């Protein structure tokens, strides 16, 4: 089976690079398909690098400080 590797940014989903098809011996045969494999690279592309989703900011959440409450139930950083 032929394979094609596609590199995608993990957070925004934009394509980083689409490799050429790695052909097998069955290329050009009837009903032969290309299996696409996706791997994640980096976090976000330059176009989406400033998005709040990329930075882990939850819309409407307060900034970290004395009134900060973690939405996942962990109020303090265990490393402080």
Report on this structure.
The protein has 80 residues and is mostly beta strands. It has one domain. It has one helix and three strands. It has one helix at residues 52-55; strands spanning 2-9, 15-18, 34-41. A three-stranded mixed sheet has the order 2-1-3, with no helix packed on it. A hairpin with a 5-residue loop joins strand 1 (2-9) and strand 2 (15-18). The mean pLDDT is 76.
Q: Short description, anyone?
A:
The chain has 80 residues and is mainly β.
How are the secondary structure elements laid out?
Layout lengths: L1 E8 L5 E4 L15 E8 L10 H4 L25
Task: Throw out a few tags for this protein.
80 residues; mainly beta; three-stranded mixed β-sheet; 1 helix; rod-shaped
Element string (H = helix, E = strand): EEEH
Radius of gyration based on Cα positions = 21 Å
- Strand order within the widest beta sheet: 2-1-3
Shape: rod-shaped
SS class: mainly beta
Q: Find the count of extended strands (DSSP E, 2+ residues).
A: 3
Strand content: 25-35%
How many strands, which pairing sense, and closed or not: the largest β-sheet? Answer: 3 strands, mixed
Name the helicity range: under 10%
Number of helices: 1
**Gap between N and C termini:** 52 Å
Region (Disordered): 61-80
């Amino acid at each position: 089976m032929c394979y094609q590797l596609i590199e995608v940014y993990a957070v925004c989903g934009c394509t980083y690079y689409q490799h050429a098809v790695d052909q097998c011996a069955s290329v050009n045969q009837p009903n032969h398909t290309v299996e696409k494999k996706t791997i994640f690279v980096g976090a976000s592309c330059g176009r989406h690098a400033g998005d709040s989703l990329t930075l882990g900011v939850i819309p409407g959440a307060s900034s970290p400080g004395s009134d900060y409450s973690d939405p996942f139930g962990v109020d303090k950083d265990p490393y402080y």
